[in-house]
């Protein structure tokens, strides 16, 4: 019988890189990777537990998997599996649960694909997840997510990630460079650097060996990669030297995603963030000084305990005045074993929803305003293989989403196009008569 495995990934880019690496282990063990609906023998669900919705999604995915392939062996890994293994084991149909220290040994644990009356749990304390396991995604997207750092030593009061992934640890620069060269040889044109606390790169076996800036400089010399994109990086770890280096780099692109979480210094203090909004504003100003066309994304949480209407308006006005390009808005949800869950000043659920809607509207306005500054410019676009209503999409170096009529020749190709107008769905279009130039 052919052994078939299907994967479903919830959460961050880091999870996608790890799912892809686990998938390669299954391939080496003789499994074929198939689509979710192709009646696999094994389902692997890689979970997130940043919000309550992620937990609910996991349960729903298990239910849908059993509808498609009732006899499939279902395994759950990821942050939710580390935090609440017993809860997951009670989900009907789940056969195995693996924590943070065990997930990369998943293939070794699957010796019998027979459905089990009760799930087996392999879950050591998160302190045992003290080794860095390299991961990168390949083959499932035009861009590759390359994991270079894991875990976090910060103690933000709302966050479960240190409980789910352990302390900060990193790969060596030499290993990252070797992986980047392998990725380049595969034909991938863009690498996205990922980590839990990416700017904290450089800790190995509890000691700081390198800095993130050292890694950036080393990667800039890797031949065969057109673009390197930095994913989320804390504002207190985004130094002037990194910003200035990116501004002159041919490979590192002008795009930063910088978590803010709140524009109120009071709320930032309650969250135990390691900066105040003045520092955040200075980071944005520095970026725009040396890279006026740089795209800047922002994470922000609404409804944190103690957030009054005045605190939220403070955040809204701060973001409205800030020269940023889009927002990722998170509605605060209580997470067990976090200090924030015990704080007073709970914000009603309906108020959280209303505040989220306001910031989503602001984000749309910010994105459109940024896109309008990019019109009538010639930009290089890396096209992806998606098809929707006869169109395909790609991204400029500074993360403007561009749509053109689908052409299979363009997949994973970089072309110079003239950005002419914003479509009704918010993407940027080029004129149909325009010839797409060869890179």
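-> sequence recovered:
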């Amino acid at each position: 019988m052919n052994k078939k495995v299907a994967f479903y990934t919830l959460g961050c880019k880091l999870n996608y890189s790890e799912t892809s690496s686990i998938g390669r282990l299954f391939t080496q063990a003789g499994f074929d990777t198939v689509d979710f609906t192709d009646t696999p023998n094994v389902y692997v669900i890689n979970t997130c537990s940043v919000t309550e919705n992620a937990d609910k999604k996991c349960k729903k995915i298990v239910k849908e998997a059993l509808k498609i392939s009732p006899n499939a062996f279902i395994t759950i890994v990821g942050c939710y599996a580390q935090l609440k293994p017993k809860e997951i084991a009670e989900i009907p149909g789940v056969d195995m649960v693996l924590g943070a220290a065990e997930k990369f040994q998943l293939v070794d644990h699957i010796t019998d694909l027979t459905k089990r009356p009760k799930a087996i749990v392999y879950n050591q304390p998160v302190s045992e997840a003290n080794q860095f396991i390299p991961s990168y995604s390949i083959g499932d997207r035009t861009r590759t997510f390359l994991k270079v750092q894991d875990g976090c030593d910060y103690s933000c009061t709302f966050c479960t990630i240190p409980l789910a992934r352990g302390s900060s640890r990193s790969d060596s620069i030499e290993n990252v460079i070797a992986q980047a060269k392998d990725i380049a040889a595969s034909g991938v044109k863009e690498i996205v650097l990922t980590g839990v606390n990416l700017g904290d790169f450089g800790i190995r076996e509890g000691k700081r060996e390198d800095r993130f800036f050292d890694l950036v400089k080393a990667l800039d010399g890797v031949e065969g990669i057109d673009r390197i994109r930095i994913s989320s990086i804390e504002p207190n770890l985004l130094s002037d030297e990194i910003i200035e280096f990116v501004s002159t780099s041919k490979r590192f692109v002008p795009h930063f995603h910088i978590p803010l979480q709140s524009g109120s210094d009071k709320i930032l203090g309650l969250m135990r963030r390691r900066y105040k909004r003045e520092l955040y504003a200075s980071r944005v100003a520095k970026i725009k000084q040396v890279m006026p066309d740089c795209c800047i994304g922002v994470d922000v949480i609404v409804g944190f305990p103690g957030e009054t209407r005045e605190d939220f308006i403070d955040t809204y006005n701060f973001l409205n005045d800030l020269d940023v390009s889009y927002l990722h808005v998170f509605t605060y949800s209580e997470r067990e074993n976090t200090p924030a869950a015990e704080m007073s000043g709970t914000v009603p659920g309906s108020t959280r929803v209303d505040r989220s809607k306001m910031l989503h509207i602001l984000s749309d306005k910010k994105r459109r305003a940024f896109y309008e500054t990019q019109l009538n410019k010639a930009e290089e676009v890396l096209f992806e293989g998606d098809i929707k209503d006869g169109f395909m999409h790609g991204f400029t170096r500074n993360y403007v989403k561009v749509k053109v009529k689908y052409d299979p020749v363009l997949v994973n190709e970089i072309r110079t196009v003239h950005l002419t107008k914003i479509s009704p769905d918010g993407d940027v279009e080029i004129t149909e008569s325009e010839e797409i130039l060869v890179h």
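The chain has 13 helices and 24 strands.
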